[in-house]
Design brief:
It is a single chain. With 56 residues, the chain is mostly helical. The chain has a domain of 27 residues. It is 86% helix and 0% strand.
Amino acid sequence: MKRKTFSVRFTVGTMFVIATLITGLVAVSLQYHFSKNMAVEHTVQNLSKAFEVVAQ
């Protein structure tokens, strides 16, 4: 069986692309998570204020 070899340039380039994709995915996921939490907290605060006004 013939073993397939990869050049150093190909290996480094591939690892760079993979690391960039993983970093981007983590960044987008964290941005979504914290934006969603912030939006929910803001909505709850506004609804609580509206409820207090209506309850008076």
